[in-house]
Amino acid sequence: MDCTVRIASPLHSYTQGRAAVAGRGDTLADVLGDLEARFPGIRFRMIDEQGRIRPHLRLFVNGDEARDLTAAVRGGDTVHVICALSGG
Amino acid sequence: MTNTLWLGTRKGLFALRADARRRTWKLSNPQFLGHVVHHVVQDPRDPRVLLMAAKTGHLGPTVFRSGDRGRTWREAAQPPAFRKAAAGEEARAVERVFWLTPGHASERGSWYAGSSPAGLFRSGDGGERWEPVAGFNDHPMRPKWAEHGTPDGAFLHSILVDPRDAQHLYLAISIGGVFESTDGGGDWTPLNEGCAADFMPDPAVPYGHDPHCVALHPLQPDRLYQQNHCGIYRLDRPARRWQRIGAAMPKKVGDVGFPVVLDPADPDTAWVLPMDGTTVWPRTSIGGKPAVYRTRDGGRSWQRLDRGLPRSHAWFTVLRQAMCADGHARTGIYFGTTGGDVWASTDAGDSWRCLARHLPEIYSVSHAH
């Protein structure tokens, strides 16, 4: 399914500065795999080698936070990649 | 000979550049501003090549490679990562790439990386693709060797390659100890005899020590120096028992610190930067009076070197990768502080001057020519 992925600024170096890109897939795992194919390296910065979402990064599908990559994505959905970090 | 000091900081990469005489240094603008840069290392087999271990606060750890002396950088296609855990196994993930070491001269393009949590990785293609070294990462004793970390996690560092034998390797873990491999990383053996572990109930444990920094002399590869959490040591192989050369340091100063730096031209000369390891371990310069100490006789005696350094009220901390030597006939020594200052000596430590101030917390200082 085609969706829109909104990309947080720490990852703009991978998307040539674009804050929103088209995505494709039936699950978050598919969508991130699709992003990786077009923007090499981006997935590992978000997802560790065990398939877990990194601690200071959060993924949302239509505003609902996904706890893992099995979350379903449907046509027209918006996936938000949010970076959240505190401290100096 | 050109001179560049690469400064890895908590908030980006900086360079200090000087001409051959090392008199005037110019600070660059930051590269990778905001990235956490743990280590930057030049490839002695191809001086145009640099590798950098980096991450950001939000994003996972990675390695960048430059083929043009740091002008442009490209990310590794496959950064260091543990293998996928089987069901029921501990699922380890690299939190930071902490250390980089070029491989043996005969293995062009080979590199090693150390991580937190403690992991060893190897690249055979100049840092583009990294593979876990199963002989260490999956060693049946690894969970015991790397059982305890520092407050910031367990770090694998001081990966050393014997210049006579590409199969002969050393590494160190904070906390865990020093380990040796004679088969290219396939198997590992603890090498900690003689080192104190004052934080352990049994001081004679075979592992569980806290080596802060280990260095091997390139001209005399059987000679190792170690700055440990509990003292300064020297080991001349094939002996296996470290000798506490820090015993010759002044008692009021002690022999706690992070870095130890060797003179590339003289196996008997080394520099350390003692820090306060008393009471609650402030890890600052002792009494607010920073000083470098040098030995010229393999640790039998030490000389205080503080000319040009602040005389008082200077509470330095210098981390393990943040002190280095250059390859000049009159050896240059450089260090960066967690307060963001860079200090230099171009007379082997006899006198010092400040090259830069107000940088972010400095994690590593490395010289490139």
Name the strands of the widest sheet of chain B in spatial order.
3-2-1-27
Q: What name is given to the CATH topology of chain B? A: Methylamine Dehydrogenase, Chain H
| Count of all domains of chain B | 1
CATH class of chain A: Alpha Beta
Counted beta strands of chain A: 5
Helical content of chain A (DSSP H or I, runs of 4+): 10-25%
Q: Spell the H/E element sequence of chain A.
A: EEHHEEE
| H-E order of chain B | EEEEEEEEEEEHHEEEEEEEEEEEEEEEE
Measured as a percent range, the helix fraction of chain B is: under 10%
Distance between the terminal alpha carbons of chain B, to the nearest Å? 6 Å
Distance between the termini of chain A: 40 Å
The proportion of strand residues of chain B reads: 35-45%
Looking at CATH, the homologous superfamily of chain B is YVTN repeat-like/Quinoprotein amine dehydrogenase
Put simply, the count of helices of chain A is: 2
Q: Report the top-level CATH class of chain B.
A: Mainly Beta
In short:
The complex is a heterodimer of chains A (about 90) and B (about 375). Chain A is an alpha+beta fold.
Tell me about this structure.
The complex is a heterodimer of chains A (88) and B (369). With 88 residues, chain A is an alpha+beta fold. Chain A is 18% helix and 27% strand. In chain A, a hairpin with a 2-residue loop joins strand 3 and strand 4. The mean pLDDT of chain A is 95. Chain B is an all-beta fold and 369 residues long. In chain B, 52% of the residues are buried. Chain B has one domain: Methylamine Dehydrogenase, Chain H. A four-stranded antiparallel sheet of chain B has the order 3-2-1-27, with no helix packed on it. Chain B has a four-stranded antiparallel sheet with strand order 4-5-6-7, with no helix packed on it. In chain B, strands 8-9-10-11 form a four-stranded antiparallel sheet. Classes of the chains: A alpha+beta (88), B mainly beta (369). At the A-B interface, helix 2 of A face loops of B.
